Amino acid sequence: MKTKETTRPKTGGRKKGTPNKNTAEIKNYLVDFVFDNKKKFEDGFKKLSKEEQFAALLNIMLKLSPKDIAGKLSFDDETTKLVKETTDKINSIFK
Hints:
mainly alpha; 5 helices; 64% helix
């Protein structure tokens, strides 16, 4: 097995920072979906408590943020639980 010092430099593939095509397409689809269902999202959002609204917005920001930013954020167990519960509630609205 080669060590890092003896491997050749990268010569192909995407350049660092270039988004994955599928990831970009999925994000675009999700943004379009949200805009196409804006009223339904707003109505569902209004049904959430202030804490749940915060958690929902935080969750959305994390999903749409670059991974290098989202991966550096950490939350306590209570906030993590609230984000999960809120995500589940939002998902149940659209079932």
